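Input chain follows. Return structure tokens only.
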Amino acid sequence: MNWECVNCGQYNSLGDCCENCASQECDRCHKPIELDEDIGVEQVYGEIDNFGAHLHEFYDGAWRVHLECLTPAEKILYDKIEEDES
């Protein structure tokens, strides 16, 4: 079944919004992130960081980023959380 995107009018199989309109911009490199490929702070630091704070954004103010835009330290933490969840 195809639906018409409410934003651009393009027909798609997702529903009210097509993949292009549903994609987000990376807060670090400002390039589009494909649908469901964004990395959020909770995927790096978990629900609560080492200092007991619930983070809503990365320490530089970024909210959603590409995997390749993680800092080396963030990438290590991300890989550890992904490993623990497997």
